[in-house]
Design goal:
The chain has 5 helices and 12 strands. With 237 residues, it is an alpha/beta fold.
């Protein structure tokens, strides 16, 4: 069973967390390159095991735009961002624009998929399934919207479909970074300043809005960790 180091960074500036992700990502990639060189030099016995991480955190108000995103999906200017105490970053994950803020659990798995399975499609579906199973424990039936990543509610009702968890990842040499953002006790008003994920005809929701009360975020984290461990058949340490 693979071991995955769990790290809870708490409330942390987006750029600081991004740089921390990059550091861990680069370390894993460097080990993989070194391992490949030992094989080509006929010294496989010197290969090093790669580490795996699952990071949870929460960010101050921030908007992030993925590589394939459209800047026009940010509906406020620099002055308005400052008034809303929000920042904005163009980043190196897939997907379009999204919002992160207090009351949202952000998960960054930094995994060497060679330790699990080399299939990005399966990886994304696993991340979605972790959230779907967690929401089911609160009596919420969630699912997938065809052709769109993330986790959605009322997927069979076009007039009511809404997203509760956004997703965007980067992978290189089968090493992953970035991940998912689950709205738990999130101020949904901040989503009005963007076209979330570039999708203009679907709403955004949160766990507390659906349940009608503030939710214990630490409890949600425990459920997410449990389903992560089960799906990836790993031990969180």
């Amino acid at each position: 069973m693979q071991q995955v180091k769990f790290i809870d960074l708490g409330l942390i500036d987006y750029k600081q967390a991004w740089e921390y992700q990059e550091k861990l990502f680069d370390e894993i990639v460097a080990v993989k390159i070194a391992n490949r060189n030992t094989v080509s030099n006929n010294h496989p016995e010197t290969q090093e095991v790669t580490n795996n991480y699952l990071i949870f955190c929460e960010h101050p108000h921030v908007y992030t735009l993925g590589k394939s995103g459209d800047e026009h999906n940010l509906l406020v200017n620099e002055t308005e961002l400052k008034e809303k105490h929000a920042t904005y970053y163009k980043i190196n994950r897939g997907g379009d624009i999204t919002y992160h803020g207090p009351g949202q659990i952000v998960g960054y798995p930094i995994l060497d998929l060679d330790n699990f399975f080399t299939d990005i499609h399966k990886y994304l579906r696993f991340l979605e399934e972790i959230v779907i199973l967690t929401l089911a424990e609160y009596g919420i039936q969630a699912g997938r919207s065809k052709g769109e990543t993330g986790v959605w509610l009322d997927i069979d009702n076009p007039s009511r479909i809404r997203k509760i968890c956004a997703m965007g990842v980067r992978a290189s040499r089968w090493v992953t970074m970035h991940g998912f953002a689950l709205n738990v006790n999130t101020d949904l008003n901040y989503f009005q300043n963007i076209i979330p994920c570039g999708i203009s005809d679907k709403a955004v929701t949160s766990l507390d809005k659906e349940l009608g009360y503030k939710v214990d975020e630490e409890e949600v984290k425990l459920k997410l960790k449990k389903h992560f461990s089960e799906l990836f058949n790993c031990q969180l340490i």
